[in-house]
Amino acid sequence: MTRYMLRILLIPALFALSGCLSLNIEDNAILNTSYSDVGSFLPLSFERDASVSYQEVIQQAIDESPSGATLRFPPGRYLLDDASGLRVPSHRTLNLEGATFVLSPELREDGQAFLLEDATGVTIRGGTIEGQRTAWPESVNISGIRVTGESSHLRFVATKFINLSSNGIGVFGESADAPIRHVWIEDIYTENCCNIYYDYLSEKPGPAEGSKREDQGNICFYYVEDFVVRGNYLDGSRSDGTHFMGCSNGQITDNQILNSQMGGFFLERCHNIVATGNIIRNNGSRGCTIERNSTSCILSNNVVEGSGREGLWAPAVADIVVANNIFRENGQKNDTGKDSEIRINENSHFEVVPANIRIEGNLFTSTGHSDGIIQVNKGVGNGIVIRGNSFTGPVRKLLLDPSVSVVVNDNHGLAPSR
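Below the sequence we write its predicted structure tokens.
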């Protein structure tokens, strides 16, 4: 072998060694990542069809994994026969790709598939969580992933949730002073989840006996701060499509929220929330609700159509921007006096008087039985602006209480109001 040929062979090896040395110094996080194979805890010929429960063994695999580990599950269907679910400690990544977790039809207690309590630095990615809501009593409320306590820095990506009787993902901080922080939910899919909520116009309105408001919403947040909910497909909730209560500093973007029995997008007591790029369609009650002392929220560049009641209901809120949305044929249930695309009113149960609300640059298409496209009711404060919107459809008027000062200008296609 000539020196020239030896040199050619050595150069790539030296570069490879250099790369390894660089990786050791600059990317220790990659080198130090450990992987735990859950399959090594299971019997050699374990059943992959959810006919046998290995819940205790899987919990052992999770508990014995080191901090920072990524747990991998062999492809298969895993039966969960204990409603307390699998408990996930801090600093773990669960890679569920190829795995389906089947909750037993025999469960008769509230619970979840995965529980994160006082957990920090957890990622759950991929897989399917499958409930049995038709086999469970209405009073049994079981979610896919539930988060409680002093938790933070959580990420849930590309998991499918079907046939659950509570949330796909429910994140519940203790209070506004003790929120759960830094939560990212992306690319999840939900179908036929949440508790049953009987419609306001039915003979027995309200949640099914034994369930509560926390069971409403494919994605449900109570007291969560600094979050992103993006690119999710949320279909067929038996109650609300989403429910955010007492949350702040959040982005809710590029989601599809469809065919909920009740409302689609729901904020209460929330602050500094931006909702943009969402399709909110064919939900049984309001398309969007921003209410109960919510402030400094933006609803922009969304499509809101086919809702049972208003496209947007906004009682007891302030400093709200509603801009560049399409509101189309909401108010499908012909709920007399409330059929409109947007309705703003006061609510004496809450401190905030509606004020500083800008409705600009939206496109409105009404139904034939709408009372008015935009309603501003008695008790609303100052700073209400309706500007630069376009109106089409058989009803193109505003209903503005004469006691309220509203700025109306530069709108197109608007019929005489009041």
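Helices lie at 3-26, 28-32, 55-64.
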